[in-house]
Amino acid sequence: MIISNNYSALTEARKFVNPKLGIIKFCVSRKRIWGEDNYFQYACELAKMGRIINMPHFPVSSTSASMDKTQAEIGAIVEGLERYCGVMKYFEDVPIYTSESENIENNLFPVKELPICLDEEYSNFYNFLSKPNSNQSYYWTKCRDLINDNDIYVPSSYIFLNHNINQKNEIISTPNSTGTAGGQLLEKATVNAILEALERDAIMITWLNQIPRNKIDIDTIKNKDILKRINAHKRNKSEVFLFDISTDFDIPIVLCVIKSPEYPEITVTAAAKLNSDEAVCRALDEAFTTRNFGLYNKSKFYIKNYDDKFHNVIDFEDHYYLYNKPKMQNKLDFLIKNDKTIHINELANNEKLEHYESQEVLEYFIDEFKKRSFHLISKEITTSDISHSIFRFVKIFTPNLVVLSPNHNLRFLKNNRIKDILPQIGYSDYSNKKITNLPHPFA
Fold first, then answer.
1. Are strands 392-397 and 253-259 parallel, antiparallel or unpaired?
2. CB atoms closer than 10 angstroms to residue 191
3. How many domains does the structure of the chain reveal?
4. pLDDT means over runs of 10, the chain (443 residues)
5. pTM (2 decimals)?
6. Domain limits at 253?
């Protein structure tokens, strides 16, 4: 997430950092393990909330990297606030508890249209989910249907990382931060959340179908900001690969693969932005952050082992460690060894969107989702102790997009878009090919 790059925003963000009473206990500049001196990285530690929210493994840290020092610090703080809102807002917004059939007047989202797994996923020994059932009672959270401009209730488990349950049959989704983002305006936060959802949708369409997406010819890049980032990675003897993974939405989505001679050998990140140069820069920044995460947690890598069917790949860290095991490093060859390249100027660029105000961009996306008969549902999750600030946080629920799941046993593969999209993006030949059984490499 990019927050406007100015000192006043940083001053506002720092108000939430206090070792005794702050939402964030501290925010510190991390030592640069590798890369050129112009790369800055900050790390934050959140207040300990595990016992309050009944999530003992809730991530208590957030990080951000950028070649702009102010942006790096703001990014780390805002990411921490985003995680905080993703759990604490649940206690301010008391959900209703009912089944679809009991309370039609409350305008509940149709249970039959929720993301679901294939039957073989539900029958998997490692499955802990139940298939959504309209007669089962769930906790529902009031949201906003952006397509129809009215209130709608969505099962709380799709909105918040934590939620109460009364019985196992209520567990219908895995905790997932997809579509959660912040910004200095509600409309900007909503656009950022939509972009993140589209980014993860593009990753999974590419990965599940093993599509050899077009490689961006780095020699065609003239933008100095991009070249500085590429050189920072190359300084560590890393190879940089950039791919155009854009879908049917007219925005640039870029996948970045960093291949290095030493651990971590493989790092995979992505970014969706309104401007192609920003998308490339963001993907490269994310690669720096993710790679440093791997280096700081190197001890975990050595004690993690995975079975041949990947049943114990259950969170995003596992996906990262898995693809740094020697037997997995050739699994990205369908991308890396693809000879088809494009000029960077061939990336999707909707020039008019770059000059729109946030509200106009949001209206554009609402129209695009409406054309496809897709749902686009929004929930502001800014907590009361943050609402006095300039920052706003949003969770977007878009069940028609392809899910990027942290748990490989539960990939929510019963989604027609996985295959239906292929002719539209020029890969009809892959429509009848089987979906890969390999976990995605995204952390």
1. unpaired
2. 25
3. 2
4. 69 94 91 64 84 65 90 95 92 88 83 96 94 94 97 95 79 92 96 98 99 98 96 90 97 97 94 96 94 84 89 94 94 96 92 85 97 98 96 98 97 98 97 97 94
5. 0.95
6. 206-346
